[in-house]
Specification:
By secondary structure, the protein is mainly alpha-helical. The chain has 7 helices and 2 strands, in the order H-H-H-E-E-H-H-H-H. It has one domain. It has a two-stranded antiparallel ribbon with strand order 1-2. Helix 1 (2-30) packs parallel to helix 4 (96-132), helix 1 (2-30) runs parallel beside helix 7 (176-218) and helix 3 packs parallel to helix 6 (150-169). The radius of gyration is 22 Å and the shape is elongated. The termini are far apart. The relative contact order is 0.17.
Length: 219
């Protein structure tokens, strides 16, 4: 079950990582009709720089996982059950040190991934912010793409807590598959709201750009 959770989380992360650049490209393409007007604003457009707020949630979850691992480390047995059967009984064991590495490694990797995605998008934003300023703030897109990676982190964090809980207190919090469904559903809702808002703004901008020439002719 743990392996399934990790695979699902990585696939979800891949979708989110690709989602940012795709949104960036679509919004830029939809604004080509206004490039001449917006080009006049290029000189006054502020360059987008990296800020820690873009990845504050991933960093926070990683630090929380580190604190929990440090607290429970001396409470764990020398051999730790880290994989379980469907009925919750232990299936595979690892040493205490390898288990801690197993639960903290993916968290650190996700933080670095969030940092790489947001850093790359800030580089793209320096060239495209002037074509997106009327549609959606580039900073909001970058912040969303960086911080939403906290969702797979939460899943992995729950897996870690479940492992610690069983090996220290011999109890499971809830089925991991149920928790994964809840988190994935939450992530889907967040992305759906973001896409719906972006599409509505794109449509409104397209309509306004087609009506403006007619008004100018009447005047």
């Amino acid at each position: 079950m743990t392996t399934t959770v990790l695979i699902a989380s990585l696939l979800f992360l891949l979708g989110l990582g690709l989602g940012g650049p795709i949104i960036w490209f679509v919004l830029r393409h939809q604004n080509t009709a206004r490039n001449k007007e917006l080009a006049q604003q290029t000189a006054t457009t502020d360059a987008i720089t990296f800020h820690w707020k873009y990845i504050v949630l991933p960093v926070s979850i990683c630090l929380l996982a580190l604190v929990l691992a440090f607290y429970f480390y001396h409470l764990l047995p020398s051999e730790v059950a880290y994989r379980f059967n469907l009925d919750g009984s232990p299936k595979d064991w690892l040493s205490r040190e390898m288990t801690i590495l197993l639960v903290l490694g993916p968290q650190a990797l996700l933080v670095m991934t969030a940092g790489a995605i947001t850093w790359g998008m800030t580089k793209m934003g320096r060239q495209t912010s002037q074509t997106m300023s009327d549609l959606i703030k580039p900073e909001k897109t970058i912040s969303l793409m960086g911080n939403i990676i906290v969702l797979p982190q939460i899943v992995l964090g729950f897996v870690m807590v479940d492992i610690l809980s069983y090996n220290v207190y011999e109890t499971h919090l809830m089925p991991i598959w149920l928790f994964v469904l809840i988190v994935m559903a939450l992530g889907g809702i967040i992305m759906a709201i973001f896409f719906a808002k972006a599409i509505r703004q794109a449509q409104a901008l397209a309509e306004s750009s087609t009506k403006t020439p007619r008004n100018e002719r009447i005047d």
